[in-house]
Amino acid sequence: MKKIFGLIGTTVKGGIFFLLPLALIFVLLGKVLEILEPLSASVQEVLDPGERYENFPYLFSILTLILVCFAAGWIAKLGAGQKMIRLIEDNVLSLFPGYSLMKSTLEARAGVSGESNFPVVLVPIDGLMFGFHVDTLDNGDFVVFIPGAPSAWEGNVVIFPENQVTNTDYKQDVIIDIMRQLGTNTNSTLLKSLAKNKAK
């Protein structure tokens, strides 16, 4: 009974961590569109005085948001932009648990090459466990983050000698999917991942 309640609690907690970022995105988008609404109304008075297009304010706001995101992405690629991002990440965002892992996973899903896409390894804990090689010590030992299930943002940091760590060709976002699914369809998920990597 205790195990069942523990599983339910872990699953609910994983669901919260999954829904929270989505809710935050929708709230932020709503606020941005709300801020842009007066501007879009002013533009409509000039371009569409008869208000023939009822959805003009929403379309204008969305287009403006896309252009702002494009400009921000372009600035982020510049040297000054990258320094500013690193400063914010090192001093603010790094305080949030799992930020680096979440960031690299989202970058992988979006097809953006990130610096912190951690290699997937296998480590000997009660058999073999998936882990992310997050750092290497001066003596050559590997620092490995062992993700939990169903929430991969929670887990343990364990240090292993290099000879106990097995490197893999699996991708970080694939392993996070497996954790979220509590290991179901692991074989097919890994096979699809390897086939996709070979096709690239």
Cα distance, first to last residue?
Answer: 47 Å
Major β-sheet, in short? Answer: 5 strands, antiparallel
Strand content: 5-15%
Total strand count, please? 5
Rg, please? Answer: 22 Å
User: Helix and strand succession?
Assistant: HHHHEEEEEHH
Shape: elongated
How is the largest sheet built, in terms of strand order? Answer: 4-3-2-1-5
- What's the assembly state of these chains? single chain
Helical segment tally? 6
Number of domains: 2
Structural class: alpha+beta
Low-confidence segments, given as residue ranges, are none
Specify the helix fraction band. Answer: 55-70%
Task: Give structural notes.
The chain has 200 residues and is an alpha+beta fold. It folds into two domains: 94 residues, no CATH class; 80 residues, SH3 type barrels. It contains six helices and five strands. The chain is elongated, with a radius of gyration of 22 Å. The model has no long low-confidence stretch (mean pLDDT 75).
Please outline the helices and strands.
Layout: H1 2-47, H2 56-77, H3 79-91, H4 99-110, E1 120-123, E2 129-136, E3 142-147, E4 155-160, E5 166-167, H5 172-180, H6 186-199
Antiparallel strand pairs: 1-2, 1-5, 2-3, 3-4
List keywords for this structure.
single chain; SH3 type barrels; 200 residues; alpha+beta; 5 strands; elongated; five-stranded antiparallel beta sheet; 6 helices
Task: Give a brief description.
Keywords: Membrane, Transmembrane, Transmembrane helix. This protein is an alpha+beta fold.
